[in-house]
Amino acid sequence: MKEPVFLEPWHAQIFALTVHLSETGVFSWPDWAQGFGAVLAEQGLDKELDGGEDYFLAWVEALERLLTARGLAGAADLARLKSDWEAAYLATPHGQPVRLAQRS
Amino acid sequence: MPHDHHDDDHPHSLLPPDPALRVRALETLLLRKGLIDPAALDAIIDTYETKIGPQNGARVVARAWADDGFRARLLSDATEVISEMGYYGRQGEHIVAVENTDETHNIVVCTLCSCYPWPLLGIPPSWYKSDAYRARVVREPRRVLADFGLELPAGQAVRVWDSTAEIRYLVIPQKPPGTEGMDEDALMTLVTRDSMIGTGLARVPARAPE
């Protein structure tokens, strides 16, 4: 029996984003592995990570930190975009494609 | 955080879980900065979902079983041999093949995060990424193997290989008995993912009816 490769679409998205950024040279894979390992070690201190959802949450955290450290993503920009996406989902009728409203 | 329950008659689109929104925010930001190409992202996902998986590693192992010359080259320079077969490492990592023998059983882990020979085995299973496996396999490999249902003879040493971002390991499991005369395609069906990580053995072929 074949397990699904990615359990959630966002697992696939964050994975692809990271592979793509390393392939285009935004960071090297060893740099990524180091940052990711650090986040895993930090988060594993108070609870046991199960390699599923927790693992990809640590992945998101590690990529945000790496890009922030390189000046490519600011925490405030990310927070604003996240709330914009949330608003877009809530404002889009079910079944319609969800698009981000352009801020004027 | 558990997902909120949404009724089917909800008027708006289902709100994705919090981390999914963080990923969308990252994507949007990088797209606006011109740092990513959405088509390349889709291609990466498609490759890992449909083209890359343990069948690639199984092909390599089956060929090594069937062809001594190939096996010798694989053990001396797996990166080159595997690239020739079209299984190229996306991160430019080196692949090292380690062969199980009567004397030594090999098992692979990544204690740092989850480095894994993607081009050969695809995306690692959850247990490979778990703290439990990553921490225990170095300390008590035989007990971890026992949890996988694998009891090794006392005289067979266990060697644990810790992967890094630069070096990934592929275990060449021992060729099972009863495989004489089988060709590469038939041998491939005996090579499981776990046998190439070292937490399992290759399957023994079903005996032909007498």
CATH class of the largest domain in chain B: Alpha Beta
Helix content of chain B: 40-55%
Q: Unreliable runs of chain A, pLDDT <50, ≥5 residues?
A: none
Structural class by helix and strand composition of chain B: alpha/beta
**DSSP helical segment count of chain B:** 11
CATH topology of the largest domain in chain B: Nitrile Hydratase, Chain A
Mean pLDDT of chain A: 87
Structural class of chain A: mainly alpha
CATH 4th-level superfamily of the largest domain in chain B: Nitrile hydratase alpha /Thiocyanate hydrolase gamma
Summarize the amount of helix of chain A as a percent range.
55-70%
Distance between the termini of chain B: 57 Å
Largest interface: A-B, 60 and 54 residues
Let me know the average pLDDT of chain B: 89
The helix-strand sequence of chain A is HHHH
InterPro entries (chain B): CN_Hdrase_a/SCN_Hdrase_g_sf, CN_Hdrtase_a/SCN_Hdrlase_g, CN_Hdrtase_asu/SCN_Hdrlase_gsu, Nitrile_hydratase_asu
Family (chain B): Belongs to the nitrile hydratase subunit alpha family.
Organism (chain B): Puniceibacterium sediminis
Catalytic activity (chain B): an aliphatic primary amide = an aliphatic nitrile + H2O
Note down, in words, how this protein is organized.
Helices cover 62% and strands 0% of the residues of chain A. Chain A has helices spanning 9-23, 29-43, 53-69, 75-91. Chain A is globular, with a radius of gyration of 16 Å. Chain A folds into 2 domains: 9-73, no CATH class; 74-104, no CATH class. Chain B is α/β, with parallel strands linked by helices. Chain B folds into 2 domains: 18-49, no CATH class; 52-197, Nitrile Hydratase, Chain A. In chain B, the strands form 2 sheets. In chain B, strands 1-4 form a two-stranded parallel sheet. Chain B has a two-stranded parallel sheet with strand order 2-3. The longest helix of chain B has 15 residues, at 18-32.
How are the SSEs ordered, and which strands pair?
The complex is a heterodimer of chains A (104) and B (210).
Chain A: H1 9-23, H2 29-43, H3 53-69, H4 75-91
Chain B: H1 18-32, H2 38-51, H3 54-66, H4 68-76, H5 78-84, E1 94-99, E2 104-109, H6 118-121, H7 126-129, H8 131-139, H9 141-147, E3 157-162, E4 167-172, H10 184-188, H11 193-197
Parallel strand pairs in B: 1-4, 2-3
